[in-house]
Amino acid sequence: MLANLRGGIQGRTGSAPQKAAFAPARRGCAHARTGGRRTTVVVRADGGDFYDLLGVPRSADKKTIKQAYRQKARKFHPDVNKDPGAEDLFKKIGEAYEVLSDDNKKAIYDKYGEAGLKGGMGGMGGGPGVEFTNPFDLFESFFGGNMGGMGGMGGMGGGMGGFSQRARNRAVPGEDDKVDLQLDFLEAVFGCSRELDVDRLTGCDECETTGVRKGTTPSTCPQCQGTGQVVSAVRTPLGTFQQVSLCPRCEGSGQISQPCTKCQGDGRVRETKRISLKVPAGVDAGSRLRVRGEGNSGRRGGEPGDLYVYITIKDHPELRRDGITIHSDVEISYVDAILGTQVKVTTVDGPVELKIPPGTQPGTTLLMAKRGVPRLGSPNVRGDHMVHVRVRIPKSLSADERKLVEELKELQSKTKVGPFRF
Ligand SMILES: [Zn+2]
Ligand SMILES: [Zn+2]
């Protein structure tokens, strides 16, 4: 197959897609700074006092604060409390707990209020402010990754179903894969087609990616009776809670199956696949080509990952490359430098005649327009080829040559003009 490279080219040659990726990032930063400045004058913004939110006095100790959080967070968790505004309150309660349970944050809050935590207050040195944990993650750190601690409360059926459903049928996207590709100098300049043998995980044909051994059918998990969850009682200072967790035997699927002999139950096997890659003109060392969908296969119907091809380039005996510009050297004799000459220069297009004008100085750079590298993504635009001229001054002269140069010297002293006036 022919790999689809459209829009997937990234390189350090200043290609268009790369620029597009940088621009929004800069805008994002500027926006964030504006937000920080705006909070400077607001003290105790919306949401009310953190102590009031948790219903504790300002003198409350850590244990009281923790207990208050547990109680309030369980009351207002949006899975349980369907009142409008319960979720906002739940998040606010999480923030309140995060601040009041941390000595540093609490001290700032007591002094400057909520605005002090968001940065910009003089006392905070205009720092980036405190980042709050996702309130649901905080909740889970208390109650164990699910609503298990909520056993006995009404309206939980839907939530539980969602939990096990997710674990059971969760599609897992395939991992990206990478491969190195070394190109010859000219292959990188003009692009090329290459066949790559890529070793990656692909869907198992033996079990049709299910991971279940051929000819067997999955049976109900004896440990969880097919629910995918196990329930245990957890004793805490606040009472006994029912802890519901993922069944360790079936990993939440509710079913036990014999693993496929070919893929050991993964649903994928490692296989070498040949991919035809079209390398675009102008790729440079360090360019990364993304081949969409040619990474490892996903699991349970998940999207496959992408294949990233990292480009390295072999040196050329004569040509050097700097982005889209080619450099090379040419050496001429001092006589040719004086009188001018024509030389044959190796370019990416092959040998080209170059005129060296009379009176060319050592170190002169001559430009051969549009003999450089096509720009990645817009191959009609080409860089230039810079020819650096070196002038060879002989270290020793034959007797005849010496005689002629001395004659020149004499001529020069008479006329006060001439090519040898240094
Ligand atoms: Zn089970
Ligand atoms: Zn298999």
From TrEMBL:
Pfam families: DnaJ, DnaJ_C, DnaJ_CXXCXGXG. It comes from the Eukaryota. Keywords: Chaperone, Chloroplast, Metal-binding, Plastid, Repeat, Transit peptide, Zinc, Zinc-finger. NCBIfam families: DnaJ_bact, PRK10767.1. Belongs to the DnaJ family. GO terms for molecular function: ATP binding; heat shock protein binding; unfolded protein binding; zinc ion binding. It is found in: Plastid, Chloroplast. This is Uncharacterized protein. GO terms for biological process: protein refolding; response to heat. Residues 191-272 form the CR-type domain. CDD domains: DnaJ, DnaJ_C, DnaJ_zf. A zinc finger (CR-type) spans 191-272. One of its GO terms (cellular component) is chloroplast. It comes from Chlamydomonas incerta. Residues 49-113 form the J domain. Residues 1-22 are annotated as: Disordered.
